[in-house]
Amino acid sequence: MENESKKEIMFKRMKEKKKEVKTVRKIVSIIVLVVLLIAGIASYFAYSYVKSALEPLNPESEEIIAVQVPIGSGLDTISTALEQNGVIKNAKIFKYYAKFNNESNFQAGDYTLTQAMTLDEIIQTLKTGKLYREPVFSMTVPEGLTLGEIGNVVEKATVHTSEDFLTLVTTDAFVDKMMVKYPKLLTAEIKAENVKYALEGYLYPATYPFYEDNPSLEVIVETMLTAMESNVSSYYELLAEDGKSVHWLVTFASLLEEEATATTDRKTIASVFYNRIEEGMPLQTDPTVLYALGSHKDRVLFEDLEVDNPYNTYQNKGLPPGPIANAGQSSFEAVLNPTDSKYFYFLADKKGTNHFSKTYDEHLQKIDEFLKK
């Protein structure tokens, strides 16, 4: 009797376990079906959304929409402008579509677009640079210029003098006004104690079209600042993640702009500067000495290297307090994507070609080889 009751108990338990297993299986099956159903619905809606974003927003629309693409705008800025102005449905999808099709070389300018245009039509319009109004004149600001040199460019292209330009860009009230207008670009660092000129390096090098005969100096400067923000805004998130500031980027890039003669040189010179900073060595870059002296020289003398100035990177470690010139896109890219090297030294020969060395002895040999002949 005892054996029988034990068997009955065991049999009962087995039946209960089987029942539990069946229940668990049913629950798991239901959960899997629900997950698959949700995933299927989400995929369908995602597909439908992307499909609609790749099509004209309103094929029947004849409304003209004016869209401005500032000088120096990247694909992120352009995509956002198109969405904000109601020309496309989604900026990210437009950006990925353009990237997937290897579309680039978009032209700055003022465009007239419609919601009836396809993405391909919008892209081709932005690439051709067809404006709905022609500029009265254009002004080209090359890379590697200081504020004073940009003032000379402004004087040649407009009715304004270089002195008036320099007065405006160094006036505290105007700088403060620009800091309010461009808070992410112009931070408190530009007014640090040892910074020579707050806006040095922040006027982007480009060719600027103007649509009136005599634009004010404020309009001219704001146009260049807008181009600068458009050009570096895509780096804001990356800089924040790395604990770096825009001022750090603009300052570092200005050194590369003054030292380099080719895009590849910029990336390798950037690696030299990174290596030196990491080892606690001064950067020892001649353009900072010239900036400290406030004059241009074909040759920097040994006595010049002794100048007592915060910008002199022979006497002070790390980057100078601020930029020493305006930098172009390739210099910004070089700062953020330097060559991986073990170089600590470089020199430019008489033809302007840079030669890199890992040791000081190797550097001295190259001085003898390339500069003393």
- Widest beta sheet: strand line-up: 1-2
- Overall pLDDT, averaged? 87
Distance between the termini: 114 Å
Radius of gyration, taken over Cα atoms and rounded to an integer in Å: 30 Å
Write down the overall geometry. extended
Helix and strand pattern: HEHHEHEHHHEHHHHHHEEH
Helical proportion? Answer: 40-55%
Structural class: mainly alpha
Report on the biggest sheet: 2 strands, antiparallel
Catalytic activity: a peptidoglycan chain = a peptidoglycan chain with N-acetyl-1,6-anhydromuramyl-[peptide] at the reducing end + a peptidoglycan chain with N-acetylglucosamine at the non-reducing end
Site (Important for catalytic activity): 259
EC number: 4.2.2.29
Family: Belongs to the transglycosylase MltG family.
Protein described:
The protein is mainly alpha-helical. It folds into three domains: 48 residues; 64 residues, Dna Ligase, domain 1, CATH 3.30.1490; 208 residues, no CATH class. The protein has 14 helices and six strands. The strands form three sheets. The chain has a two-stranded antiparallel sheet. Strands 3-4 form a two-stranded antiparallel sheet. It has a two-stranded antiparallel ribbon with strand order 5-6. The longest helix is centred in the N-terminal third of the chain and has 52 residues. The protein is extended, with a radius of gyration of 30 Å. The protein starts with a helix and ends with a helix. It is a single-pass membrane protein. It is found in: Cell membrane. GO terms for molecular function: lytic endotransglycosylase activity. It comes from Psychrobacillus insolitus.
